[in-house]
Amino acid sequence: MTKRHHNNLQLALDILRGRWLLSDAEVLLPQALKFLSREPLDAKLEYTPLMYSEDGSWGDAEAESTDIEKKVIVIPIHGPVTKYWSCDTVGTLDIANDLLEFASKDEVVGIVLDIDCPGGASNAVPPMVEAIRKVKAMGKPIVVHGDMVASAAYWFASECDAIFLDNSLSIAGSIGAYASYVDEREDKQTGRRTISVYAPESTDKNKAYREALEGRYELCQEELSELVQEFHKAVKENRPKLKTEEAGVLSGALFAAAKAIPAGLADGMKTLSECIENVFIRAEYQ
Protein backbone atom coordinates (compact mmCIF):
# COMPACT_ATOMS: atom_id res chain seq x y z
CA MET A 1 0.00 0.00 0.00
CA THR A 2 1.00 3.64 0.09
CA LYS A 3 4.02 4.79 2.03
CA ARG A 4 3.16 6.06 5.50
CA HIS A 5 3.73 9.77 6.01
CA HIS A 6 5.02 10.34 9.56
CA ASN A 7 5.36 13.90 10.79
CA ASN A 8 5.98 14.41 14.50
CA LEU A 9 6.92 18.04 13.89
CA GLN A 10 3.39 18.75 12.65
CA LEU A 11 2.00 17.12 15.80
CA ALA A 12 4.21 19.38 17.91
CA LEU A 13 2.96 22.44 16.05
CA ASP A 14 -0.65 21.33 16.44
CA ILE A 15 -0.18 20.82 20.17
CA LEU A 16 1.53 24.18 20.61
CA ARG A 17 -0.96 26.25 18.64
CA GLY A 18 -3.46 24.09 16.78
CA ARG A 19 -7.21 24.06 16.16
CA TRP A 20 -8.78 20.84 17.37
CA LEU A 21 -12.05 19.02 16.80
CA LEU A 22 -11.61 16.71 19.75
CA SER A 23 -13.64 15.31 22.61
CA ASP A 24 -12.14 14.70 26.06
CA ALA A 25 -8.88 16.44 25.24
CA GLU A 26 -7.69 16.01 28.82
CA VAL A 27 -7.12 12.29 28.31
CA LEU A 28 -4.45 13.13 25.72
CA LEU A 29 -2.71 15.69 27.92
CA PRO A 30 -0.20 13.24 29.48
CA GLN A 31 0.89 12.08 26.02
CA ALA A 32 1.17 15.68 24.79
CA LEU A 33 3.30 16.69 27.76
CA LYS A 34 5.54 13.64 27.32
CA PHE A 35 5.90 14.46 23.63
CA LEU A 36 6.85 18.08 24.26
CA SER A 37 9.33 17.12 26.99
CA ARG A 38 10.85 14.47 24.67
CA GLU A 39 10.00 11.59 27.00
CA PRO A 40 9.42 8.11 25.50
CA LEU A 41 5.87 7.64 24.26
CA ASP A 42 3.70 4.55 24.30
CA ALA A 43 3.78 2.09 21.40
CA LYS A 44 2.60 3.27 18.02
CA LEU A 45 -0.98 2.61 17.01
CA GLU A 46 -1.68 -0.57 15.11
CA TYR A 47 -3.24 -0.17 11.68
CA THR A 48 -4.31 -3.22 9.70
CA PRO A 49 -7.12 -2.96 7.13
CA LEU A 50 -9.00 -6.25 6.77
CA MET A 51 -10.75 -7.83 3.80
CA TYR A 52 -13.97 -9.83 4.28
CA SER A 53 -15.44 -12.15 1.64
CA GLU A 54 -19.08 -13.13 1.18
CA ASP A 55 -18.34 -16.65 2.40
CA GLY A 56 -17.26 -15.26 5.80
CA SER A 57 -13.51 -15.64 5.31
CA TRP A 58 -11.25 -12.71 6.04
CA GLY A 59 -7.62 -11.65 5.97
CA ASP A 60 -5.16 -8.79 5.72
CA ALA A 61 -6.45 -6.43 3.06
CA GLU A 62 -2.91 -5.55 2.00
CA ALA A 63 -1.96 -9.16 1.26
CA GLU A 64 -1.65 -10.15 -2.39
CA SER A 65 -4.73 -12.02 -3.60
CA THR A 66 -5.89 -13.42 -6.92
CA ASP A 67 -9.35 -14.22 -5.55
CA ILE A 68 -12.04 -12.36 -7.50
CA GLU A 69 -14.84 -13.05 -5.02
CA LYS A 70 -16.66 -9.93 -3.84
CA LYS A 71 -15.13 -8.34 -0.77
CA VAL A 72 -15.71 -5.60 1.78
CA ILE A 73 -12.76 -3.71 3.25
CA VAL A 74 -12.76 -2.74 6.93
CA ILE A 75 -10.47 0.20 7.69
CA PRO A 76 -9.73 0.87 11.37
CA ILE A 77 -9.60 4.43 12.66
CA HIS A 78 -8.73 3.90 16.31
CA GLY A 79 -7.44 6.78 18.40
CA PRO A 80 -7.10 10.52 17.74
CA VAL A 81 -6.56 11.66 14.15
CA THR A 82 -4.03 14.05 12.66
CA LYS A 83 -3.21 14.72 9.03
CA TYR A 84 0.03 12.72 9.28
CA TRP A 85 0.93 9.66 11.32
CA SER A 86 2.73 10.35 14.58
CA CYS A 87 3.56 8.39 17.72
CA ASP A 88 -0.04 8.01 18.91
CA THR A 89 -2.25 9.50 16.22
CA VAL A 90 -3.80 8.16 13.02
CA GLY A 91 -2.70 9.81 9.76
CA THR A 92 -5.77 10.56 7.65
CA LEU A 93 -3.77 11.53 4.57
CA ASP A 94 -2.66 7.92 4.14
CA ILE A 95 -5.98 6.42 5.22
CA ALA A 96 -7.67 8.55 2.56
CA ASN A 97 -5.21 7.21 -0.03
CA ASP A 98 -5.90 3.66 1.15
CA LEU A 99 -9.64 4.24 0.82
CA LEU A 100 -9.27 5.20 -2.82
CA GLU A 101 -6.83 2.41 -3.60
CA PHE A 102 -9.05 -0.29 -2.10
CA ALA A 103 -12.23 1.13 -3.65
CA SER A 104 -10.63 1.08 -7.11
CA LYS A 105 -10.34 -2.73 -7.03
CA ASP A 106 -13.09 -4.53 -8.97
CA GLU A 107 -13.59 -7.21 -6.32
CA VAL A 108 -14.11 -4.63 -3.55
CA VAL A 109 -17.81 -3.78 -3.40
CA GLY A 110 -17.72 -1.41 -0.44
CA ILE A 111 -16.02 -0.09 2.69
CA VAL A 112 -16.64 -0.12 6.44
CA LEU A 113 -14.88 2.53 8.51
CA ASP A 114 -14.39 0.99 11.95
CA ILE A 115 -14.21 4.14 14.08
CA ASP A 116 -13.27 4.42 17.74
CA CYS A 117 -12.00 7.98 17.76
CA PRO A 118 -12.37 11.06 19.96
CA GLY A 119 -11.57 13.37 17.05
CA GLY A 120 -8.35 15.25 16.45
CA ALA A 121 -6.75 18.07 14.51
CA SER A 122 -8.97 20.08 12.17
CA ASN A 123 -6.58 19.58 9.24
CA ALA A 124 -7.19 15.82 9.48
CA VAL A 125 -10.75 16.20 8.18
CA PRO A 126 -10.42 17.39 4.53
CA PRO A 127 -8.46 14.36 3.21
CA MET A 128 -11.11 12.00 4.57
CA VAL A 129 -14.03 14.05 3.28
CA GLU A 130 -12.54 14.15 -0.22
CA ALA A 131 -11.79 10.42 -0.25
CA ILE A 132 -15.22 9.38 1.05
CA ARG A 133 -16.94 11.50 -1.58
CA LYS A 134 -14.84 9.89 -4.31
CA VAL A 135 -15.66 6.39 -3.04
CA LYS A 136 -19.37 7.25 -3.14
CA ALA A 137 -18.94 8.68 -6.64
CA MET A 138 -17.58 5.27 -7.70
CA GLY A 139 -20.96 3.84 -6.71
CA LYS A 140 -19.52 1.86 -3.80
CA PRO A 141 -21.23 2.02 -0.39
CA ILE A 142 -19.28 3.17 2.64
CA VAL A 143 -20.70 2.91 6.15
CA VAL A 144 -19.43 3.56 9.67
CA HIS A 145 -19.23 1.02 12.47
CA GLY A 146 -18.51 3.11 15.53
CA ASP A 147 -17.86 2.81 19.22
CA MET A 148 -16.81 6.43 19.71
CA VAL A 149 -17.52 8.72 16.78
CA ALA A 150 -16.72 12.18 18.05
CA SER A 151 -15.84 15.63 16.79
CA ALA A 152 -13.47 15.45 13.77
CA ALA A 153 -14.33 11.76 13.36
CA TYR A 154 -18.03 12.61 13.34
CA TRP A 155 -17.45 15.26 10.67
CA PHE A 156 -16.06 12.81 8.13
CA ALA A 157 -18.31 9.97 9.33
CA SER A 158 -21.30 12.13 8.45
CA GLU A 159 -20.17 11.96 4.81
CA CYS A 160 -20.74 8.18 4.75
CA ASP A 161 -23.92 6.39 3.68
CA ALA A 162 -24.81 5.41 7.24
CA ILE A 163 -23.49 5.55 10.79
CA PHE A 164 -24.08 2.52 13.01
CA LEU A 165 -23.08 2.40 16.68
CA ASP A 166 -21.84 -0.91 18.03
CA ASN A 167 -23.74 -1.11 21.33
CA SER A 168 -25.78 0.81 23.88
CA LEU A 169 -22.64 2.29 25.44
CA SER A 170 -21.26 3.58 22.14
CA ILE A 171 -21.24 7.35 21.74
CA ALA A 172 -21.46 9.95 18.97
CA GLY A 173 -21.43 13.72 18.67
CA SER A 174 -19.13 16.36 20.18
CA ILE A 175 -19.78 18.73 17.29
CA GLY A 176 -17.53 21.62 18.25
CA ALA A 177 -13.99 23.00 18.22
CA TYR A 178 -11.33 24.42 20.49
CA ALA A 179 -7.81 25.80 20.20
CA SER A 180 -4.70 24.80 22.10
CA TYR A 181 -1.91 27.21 22.96
CA VAL A 182 1.16 26.34 25.02
CA ASP A 183 2.91 29.33 26.57
CA GLU A 184 6.62 28.61 26.26
CA ARG A 185 7.81 32.15 26.80
CA GLU A 186 9.55 31.20 30.01
CA ASP A 187 11.41 28.00 30.85
CA LYS A 188 10.55 27.24 34.48
CA GLN A 189 13.76 25.27 34.98
CA THR A 190 16.29 27.65 33.43
CA GLY A 191 14.44 30.92 33.74
CA ARG A 192 15.06 31.62 30.07
CA ARG A 193 12.32 33.60 28.39
CA THR A 194 11.43 33.46 24.70
CA ILE A 195 10.70 36.85 23.17
CA SER A 196 8.94 37.25 19.83
CA VAL A 197 9.30 40.52 17.93
CA TYR A 198 7.01 41.36 15.00
CA ALA A 199 7.55 43.91 12.27
CA PRO A 200 5.36 47.02 12.61
CA GLU A 201 3.79 46.09 9.27
CA SER A 202 2.76 42.66 10.70
CA THR A 203 0.36 43.63 13.45
CA ASP A 204 -2.09 40.86 12.54
CA LYS A 205 0.47 38.06 12.32
CA ASN A 206 -0.36 35.33 14.88
CA LYS A 207 -2.64 37.88 16.51
CA ALA A 208 -5.14 35.37 17.92
CA TYR A 209 -2.31 33.34 19.44
CA ARG A 210 -0.60 36.38 20.97
CA GLU A 211 -3.82 37.77 22.40
CA ALA A 212 -4.82 34.40 23.86
CA LEU A 213 -1.54 34.22 25.78
CA GLU A 214 -2.44 37.58 27.31
CA GLY A 215 -5.90 36.40 28.31
CA ARG A 216 -7.81 38.01 25.44
CA TYR A 217 -9.74 35.26 23.65
CA GLU A 218 -12.17 37.14 21.42
CA LEU A 219 -10.19 36.82 18.17
CA CYS A 220 -9.43 33.14 18.82
CA GLN A 221 -13.12 32.50 19.51
CA GLU A 222 -14.02 34.27 16.27
CA GLU A 223 -11.67 32.00 14.30
CA LEU A 224 -13.03 28.91 16.04
CA SER A 225 -16.58 30.05 15.33
CA GLU A 226 -15.81 30.13 11.59
CA LEU A 227 -14.53 26.54 11.82
CA VAL A 228 -17.59 25.37 13.77
CA GLN A 229 -19.93 27.02 11.27
CA GLU A 230 -18.32 24.93 8.53
CA PHE A 231 -18.70 21.86 10.77
CA HIS A 232 -22.40 22.62 11.34
CA LYS A 233 -22.99 23.20 7.63
CA ALA A 234 -21.42 19.85 6.75
CA VAL A 235 -23.33 17.72 9.26
CA LYS A 236 -26.63 19.42 8.43
CA GLU A 237 -26.15 18.66 4.73
CA ASN A 238 -24.89 15.11 5.34
CA ARG A 239 -27.42 14.18 8.05
CA PRO A 240 -30.76 15.67 6.91
CA LYS A 241 -32.61 13.88 9.76
CA LEU A 242 -30.36 15.44 12.39
CA LYS A 243 -32.48 17.08 15.08
CA THR A 244 -30.49 20.28 15.29
CA GLU A 245 -32.94 21.88 17.68
CA GLU A 246 -32.27 19.33 20.43
CA ALA A 247 -30.10 20.56 23.27
CA GLY A 248 -26.44 19.64 22.84
CA VAL A 249 -26.62 18.32 19.29
CA LEU A 250 -24.80 21.27 17.72
CA SER A 251 -23.15 22.62 20.87
CA GLY A 252 -20.62 19.86 21.46
CA ALA A 253 -22.43 17.27 23.60
CA LEU A 254 -21.75 13.54 23.32
CA PHE A 255 -24.71 11.15 23.17
CA ALA A 256 -24.95 7.45 23.98
CA ALA A 257 -26.71 5.29 21.40
CA ALA A 258 -30.14 5.51 23.07
CA LYS A 259 -30.16 9.27 22.47
CA ALA A 260 -27.81 9.54 19.47
CA ILE A 261 -30.06 7.45 17.21
CA PRO A 262 -33.33 9.35 17.85
CA ALA A 263 -31.42 12.63 17.50
CA GLY A 264 -30.29 11.61 14.01
CA LEU A 265 -26.61 11.40 14.91
CA ALA A 266 -26.61 7.69 14.02
CA ASP A 267 -28.83 5.34 12.01
CA GLY A 268 -29.01 2.39 14.40
CA MET A 269 -26.95 -0.21 16.24
CA LYS A 270 -25.03 -2.91 14.41
CA THR A 271 -22.03 -5.06 15.22
CA LEU A 272 -19.04 -5.02 12.88
CA SER A 273 -20.16 -8.23 11.18
CA GLU A 274 -23.64 -6.76 10.68
CA CYS A 275 -22.12 -3.61 9.17
CA ILE A 276 -20.11 -5.73 6.73
CA GLU A 277 -23.28 -7.60 5.74
CA ASN A 278 -25.05 -4.25 5.36
CA VAL A 279 -22.42 -3.11 2.86
CA PHE A 280 -22.80 -6.34 0.83
CA ILE A 281 -26.56 -5.74 0.70
CA ARG A 282 -26.17 -2.09 -0.27
CA ALA A 283 -23.69 -3.05 -3.00
CA GLU A 284 -26.14 -5.59 -4.42
CA TYR A 285 -29.01 -3.09 -4.69
CA GLN A 286 -27.03 0.09 -5.38
Task: Explain the layout of strands and helices.
Layout: H1 8-17, E1 18-22, H2 29-36, E2 50-53, E3 58-60, E4 71-78, E5 81-82, E6 90-91, H3 92-103, E7 108-117, E8 119-121, H4 125-137, E9 142-150, H5 152-157, E10 162-165, E11 171-173, E12 178-181, H6 207-213, H7 218-238, E13 254-256, H8 257-260, E14 268-269, H9 272-285
Parallel strand pairs: 4-7, 5-6, 7-9, 9-10, 9-11, 10-14
Antiparallel strand pairs: 1-8, 1-12, 2-3, 2-4, 11-13
Helix pairs in contact: 3-4, 6-7
Give a description of the structure.
- With 286 residues, this protein is α/β, with parallel strands linked by helices.
- The protein has a single domain (9-193, 205-285), classed as 2-enoyl-CoA Hydratase, Chain A, domain 1, CATH 3.90.226.10.
- The chain is built from nine helices and 14 strands.
- It has helices spanning 8-17, 29-36, 92-103, 125-137, 152-157, 207-213, 218-238, 257-260, 272-285, and strands spanning 18-22, 50-53, 58-60, 71-78, 81-82, 90-91, 108-117, 119-121, 142-150, 162-165, 171-173, 178-181, 254-256, 268-269.
- The strands form three sheets. Strands 2, 3, 4, 7, 9, 10, 11, 13 and 14 form a nine-stranded mixed beta sheet that branches. It has a three-stranded antiparallel beta sheet with strand order 8-1-12.
- The two termini are 28 Å apart.
